[in-house]
Design goal:
The structure is a single chain. The chain is built from 6 helices and 7 strands; from the N terminus they run βαβαβαβαβαββα. The protein has about 200 residues and is α/β, with parallel strands linked by helices. The chain has a domain of about 100 residues: Formyl transferase, N-terminal domain (Rossmann fold, 3-Layer(aba) Sandwich). The longest helix is centred in the last third of the chain and has 24 residues. The protein binds 5-O-phosphono-beta-D-ribofuranosylamine (GRF). The site of 5-O-phosphono-beta-D-ribofuranosylamine has 14 residues, from helix 1, strand 5 and helix 6.
Length: about 200
């Protein structure tokens, strides 16, 4: 019997975090299998990563449906069909429907490229986060894996790790340093959640 947790990863872009989850799972260092990748964009490079790893993909766009109710129903059915138990948001730029949050309460994670609760909330994504950190003069930043609830970047923090802000940093340099940490802590946090350790 396959006792591994069944995970769906939601993306909107390049999917380097998705890749680190795929690699960790393939190396047997994650007690879970990524069974489905959901993307809000049909041209997200992360979809290629999924296909290369033999993982099924689903492009989920509201505009493909008559209304949000139909859309949510279809998404929930898809997750059901794949027997999804955990959802990992990895650079997913859309809101998760409340019905999905309710059904997967405490089993949806997100990774944020800063030390939450600082630099979180609406509008704080991608480059904006690193620009805000640099503008503040903070001496450190980092990455946070947290649970997802109805409020942006609000759920319980599972794992966090710091990186220094260095003289001469620009948003790209800082983002690259943070991303490296993201790739390390996301699989770790997910593993702890699956094992019930956080
Ligand atoms: C990461 O910085 C993550 O923290 C944020 O979006 C970015 C996604 O990068 N939520 P990638 O698509 O995983 O490369």
């Amino acid at each position: 019997m396959d006792s591994k947790a069944r995970i769906a990863v939601f993306i909107s872009g390049g999917g380097t975090n998705l890749q680190s989850l795929i690699d960790t799972s393939q190396q047997g260092r994650l007690s879970g299998d990524i069974v489905l990748v959901v993307s809000s964009k049909s041209n997200a490079y992360g979809l290629e990563r999924a296909k290369n790893a033999g993982i099924d993909t689903f492009v989920y766009k509201l505009k493909n449906y008559a209304g949000s109710e139909e859309a949510e129903k279809d998404l929930l059915e898809m997750l059901e069909e794949y027997g999804v138990e955990f959802i990992a948001l990895a650079g997913y730029l859309k809101l998760i429907p409340v019905s999905v949050i309710k059904k997967y309460r405490d089993r949806i994670t997100n990774i944020h490229p800063a030390l939450l609760p600082k630099y979180g909330g609406k509008g704080m994504y991608g480059r904006h986060v690193h620009e805000a950190v640099l503008a503040s003069g903070d001496k450190e930043s980092g990455a946070t894996v947290h649970l997802v609830d109805e409020i942006y970047d609000n759920g319980r923090i599972l794992v966090q790790e710091k990186v220094p802000v260095l003289p001469g940093d620009d948003p790209d340099k800082l983002a690259a340093r943070v991303l490296k940490i993201e790739h390390k802590i996301y699989p770790l946090a997910l593993e702890k959640l699956i094992r019930g350790e956080v």
